[in-house]
Amino acid sequence: MKKIKISPSILSADFSQLGNEIRKLEEGGADMIHVDVMDGHFVPNLTIGPPVIKALKKHSSVLFDVHLMISPVHDYIEAYSDAGADIITIHPEATNNLKSSILKIKELKKKVGVSLNPGTQIDTIIDFLEQIDLVLIMSVNPGFGGQKFMPEVLTKVKELKKIQKEKGLNFDIEIDGGINFDNAKTVIEAGANILVSGTTIFKSNNGDVKKNIELLKSK
Q1: pLDDT tens digits, one per residue of 26-64
Q2: What angle do helix axes 50-57 and 18-27 make, rounded to 10 degrees?
């Protein structure tokens, strides 16, 4: 079984103190930093772009796990790669040619992630699993932080884990959306090995991120 990793989402951080927040996460044991990029078009919200990621990267030595919720995504992959993304995760619906976008990320020597919204089926990416480093299962509809976890996506996590074992593949299974102390154990048992969490890490236990990261890992 893969080691459980925590990827705190800076969507829930204090944006006026982002550099300090990232340092705090790293000191608290975060395995990577999850950066949600939204364009107000593919999802109904706007967040940050390449210049901010480039500036933040200077404050961290851990992996930047960049989730692109933008369309058309293909045209922006190189900009986020240059900004410092280590893992670039895209949505099948946001590109005209998923194969081409995966190859572009690989050519830039970055890890490839593909994200499945609650309504997107595994069949959409089944032919690409051998080329993917990470599958991100959304357990909320993307666009905003602080949403309630959708337990029905656990069926998808279990199915993906089954396919992974049958085919002898080695991609990570990441889950994002409403992950907290109450459901972390369930999602790990279903097969996820990377947990994205924002509100729980930044707001629980008076903002003690180290304690919150350890609690999520120990479930």
Answers
A1: 999 999 999 999 998 899 888 999 999 999 998 789 999
A2: 50
